[in-house]
Design goal:
The protein has 312 residues and is α+β, with helices and mostly antiparallel strands. It has nine helices and 20 strands. The structure holds flavin-adenine dinucleotide.
Amino acid sequence: MRYVIPEQIRRRFGEALRIDEPLAPHTSFRIGGPADLFIAARTRDDIADAVTAAEAAGLPWIVLGRCSNVLIHEDGIRGLVIRNDASSFTFDPRTGVVQCDSGARLPSVGAQTARAGLAGLEWAVGIPGSVGGGVVMNAGAHGGCIADVLAYAEILDHGQRSQYPAAALEHSYRVSRLQRERDLVVLGAEFHLTPCAPAECLARVQSFRRHRQETQPTDPGAGSIFRNPPQASAGALIDRAGLKGTRHGGALISPKHGNFIVNVDHATFADVVALIDVARTTVARQFGIDLHPEVEFLGPEGRLSLDEVHRL
Ligand SMILES: Cc1cc2nc3c(=O)[nH]c(=O)nc-3n(C[C@H](O)[C@H](O)[C@H](O)COP(=O)(O)OP(=O)(O)OC[C@H]3O[C@@H](n4cnc5c(N)ncnc54)[C@H](O)[C@@H]3O)c2cc1C
């Protein structure tokens, strides 16, 4: 632990503040070293207060959701990690308006709104992330994505809380403005769904779940490692390159889905990066296509590009 704990954070969070918290158990990859300081934030106010106090004290901070799209280095993360457990949501089956804290789990919101006869988030049932992570990543599947149904997000920007209409977030395929402006934190989101027969919504949920069971591995991982290049599927390219089943240390390119790298036996950050490199160089050589990671890399100083990962 390199930092003195800011008094404002100690007073506000007391016992809830953890020191040298191992991050691996919080991640879907089950990889990653400790956070110097760690808070599980239960409300939007918790998140806002933690970020504001860290900014005032000059302490580096990062907000994480369900950690289902991150690969964290064994050296962990310096400063304050705020894990978003603000997970309430409400919806009105008559109007289709869904209001979520940003830590609400996408599968819960997708399943409960579908059961209530609201169409538009059925695709989210298989995405193990938070609403906030989904808004940042413009998460999506089965032809749907966050941008299709988002009305606005409540954003924290250097102590100011305001509502950003969806258009202001500049969503495109797995991209948003929030990936460039990392000081902005999603505190909440409002979705507008369409009333529909519950049986129809639930049939879509079942078929999406079945499709995942049939096509995707269940070992620890982060879902798709690469973004799909234009007009192509990263998984299909990796499969055609003959790389399914390639192993490095405890990490494996899933034999079930080429775009999934999974942690099968105490894989390290470097094991996963080695397979990412194999997939990128092989696909570039064979097909002349550059694959770009969808998963985010986090190291001691925060987010890293793949070039920075190679220089670690
Ligand atoms: C088995 C599996 C299947 C998956 N399938 C899909 C899929 O079909 N489609 C898809 O799009 N994704 C998929 N994913 C990836 C992942 O679930 C999504 O990207 C999800 O949106 C990430 O949300 P999260 O809460 O886990 O974000 P995290 O991994 O916790 O964070 C991702 C990034 O967003 C930032 N962030 C998180 N919350 C906030 C916030 N409130 N405010 C500001 N920044 C924030 C973090 O700092 C980090 O930079 C899958 C993952 C797994 C493990």
